[in-house]
Amino acid sequence: MKIAILGAGNLGLSIAKGLLNTNDGIASIYLTKRDISPIKALESYGNVTVTMDNKEALKNSDILIFAVQPVHFENILEQLKDYLADNHIIISTITGFSIERIEKVIGKNNNIIRSMPNTAISVGQSMTCICANEKGQGKIELARTIFNKMGHSMIIPENQMQAATVICASGIAFWMRLIRATTQGAIQLGFDAKEAQELAMHTCNGAAQLLIASGNHPEEEIDKVTTPRGCTIQGLNEMEHQGLSSSLIQGIVASYEKINQIKKE
What we know:
265 residues; eight-stranded mixed β-sheet; alpha/beta
């Protein structure tokens, strides 16, 4: 595969790092950025080219992953549309930018895929949601193969992409905040800051891995560690009294309402 990442900012760079960590079946990676100095060192990998020229990246790649700012996306598509070929697969990670809007610029006769990874892609642990236009359906499994190298992927209808952005991309921040709160609690119980974060991180990871491996509902695993009149159920009940679940749900819904508002602007 010859891959170009157009817009090597935070997300684009995370995708690049994820690809470089797998380095499976990748002939070349082109990275584009207006200021290439912060990412120039990536050329030390040998199969990486860093450039400010999007057209150069396009001409030397088959798979084009767009990770630019939404405000610049349409203009970049306009600049590149005359250079697109039948073999190109366009993968957009642009929040709120629909397939219909992309088709209006470059036409329907292109393989267009929308994906929503998160920044954990840099360590091969992204949850990525994917959808495609009619022509792109024939390439969607290839896109899924790429993202499965860097975590887990799910094919969904496009009308669920906004919600997926909140749960998977914004969700990284939500979980970080929960880990931070657990860390602060551990410090209050007597652990130093480094120990507290280590305890919180690995316990969170273990909880997720338990569910992934078992396929169980979270409550099934909760039942295994809650005993009558025990400390776990006491803590859980106090958290619920203070609104843990409801505040998390309300935060998710507020984030979803905001992303839909941004889409209309």
